[in-house]
């Protein structure tokens, strides 16, 4: 291996904690096992005003959509509309009824979405030690369906890293750590509890629609985000974080500056610990509201679509404050 080449993950993470087997040999939802009735009630206890927010982006937005380079924007195609009846091609329905239908073709990871736990792997193994062969042609295990069946309901906390750094949007490649998350919460007068759903606002996705879409393409594409350290992985493990939610495309800095590794938290948190990842949300309106009323904790609810054997699925989470 050349000196400047990043290490192999199998070697790099050999001492990193794993939750494999913790919830049995057939588990498909990982850290969502931490979310039960008590956690739902803890979320509901944060509701004060009844204000609600939806966090998903518009799929098929004509202004474009921020996504990982190489993925394609969604295509919605109208398959039947008033034109069919106007042209005499619609099936006559008593009472003069018409209706419209659409088809959607999309890369599932090209908009607001939950990743299935088997979405990323190394060394031939995905979450819980299943073989990466189980992803071939569709996830025969650890697809998005078990996550969708379980749903995600709990106490959410917004950590406004952009505001914490005195910025509208974090810079390309700018990193932060779990210690920054804790300090950010404290600066907001809030505290991260065990089993909280963490929502981190960087301003990144909103900046796409604010005249900065050029930074989302090209070979120098690099997002800001959380960055790997053994201490950070241990913190997520100890805090029993079920779900990691951001307004970036990949939930972590694209290339870890310390090692040159690409997306190491997909391996250390998703594959090894079973932390569920939620990506490409628009958290800026919620962040603005939190800044104005000083309330950074709330009920968070989400359920991705139940798509057979899928590696992820679109979602539009709802937050109630
Ligand atoms: C990749 O796996 C590249 O991205 P994501 O998890 O963001 O869909």
Features:
single chain; 321 residues; Glucose Oxidase, domain 1; nine-stranded mixed beta sheet; two-stranded antiparallel ribbon; 17% strand; binds acetylphosphate
Summarize the structure in words:
The chain has 321 residues and is α/β, with parallel strands linked by helices. It has 2 domains: 24-68 and 109-320, Putative cyclase (Glucose Oxidase, domain 1); 75-104, no CATH class. The chain is built from 10 helices and 13 strands. The longest helix has 10 residues, at 178-187. Bound molecules: acetylphosphate (UVW).
Q: Assign the CATH superfamily of the largest domain.
A: Putative cyclase
CATH class of the largest domain: Alpha Beta
- Helical element count? 10
Order of helices and strands: HHEEHEEHEHEHEHEHEHEHEEE
- Tell me roughly what share of residues is in helical segments: 10-25%
The figure for the number of domains is 2
Computed Rg: 21 Å
How would you write the strand order of the largest sheet? 1-13-11-5-7-9-10-4-12
Chain-averaged pLDDT: 96
Question: Could you give the distance between the termini?
Answer: 52 Å
Stretches where pLDDT is under 50 for at least 5 consecutive residues are none
């Amino acid at each position: 291996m050349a000196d400047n080449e990043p290490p192999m993950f199998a070697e790099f993470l050999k001492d990193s904690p794993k939750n494999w087997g913790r919830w049995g040999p057939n588990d498909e939802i990982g850290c969502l096992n931490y979310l039960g009735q008590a956690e739902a009630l803890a979320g509901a206890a944060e509701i004060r005003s009844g204000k609600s927010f939806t966090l998903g982006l518009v799929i098929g937005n004509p202004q474009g959509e921020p996504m990982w380079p190489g993925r394609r924007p969604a295509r919605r195609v109208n398959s039947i509309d008033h034109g069919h009846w106007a042209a005499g091609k619609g099936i006559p329905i008593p009472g003069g009824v018409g209706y419209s239908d659409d088809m959607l073709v999309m890369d599932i990871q090209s908009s607001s979405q939950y990743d299935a736990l088997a979405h990323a792997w190394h060394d031939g193994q995905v979450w819980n030690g299943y073989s990466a062969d189980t992803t071939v042609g569709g996830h025969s295990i650890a697809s998005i369906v078990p996550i969708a069946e379980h749903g995600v309901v709990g106490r959410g906390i917004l950590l406004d890293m952009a505001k914490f750094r005195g910025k509208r949007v974090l810079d390309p490649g700018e990193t932060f750590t779990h210690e920054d998350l804790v300090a950010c919460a404290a600066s907001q007068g809030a505290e991260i509890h065990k089993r909280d759903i963490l929502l981190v606002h960087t301003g990144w996705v909103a900046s796409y629609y604010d005249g900065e879409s050029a930074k989302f393409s090209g070979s120098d594409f690099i997002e800001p985000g959380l960055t790997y350290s053994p201490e950070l992985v241990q913190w997520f493990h100890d805090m029993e974080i079920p779900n990691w939610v951001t307004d970036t495309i990949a939930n972590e800095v694209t290339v870890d500056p310390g090692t040159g590794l690409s997306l190491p938290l997909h391996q250390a948190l998703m594959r090894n610990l079973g932390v569920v990842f939620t990506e490409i949300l628009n958290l800026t309106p919620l962040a603005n509201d939190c800044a104005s009323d000083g309330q950074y904790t709330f009920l968070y609810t989400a359920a991705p679509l139940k798509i057979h054997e899928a590696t992820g699925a679109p979602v539009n989470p709802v937050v109630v404050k």
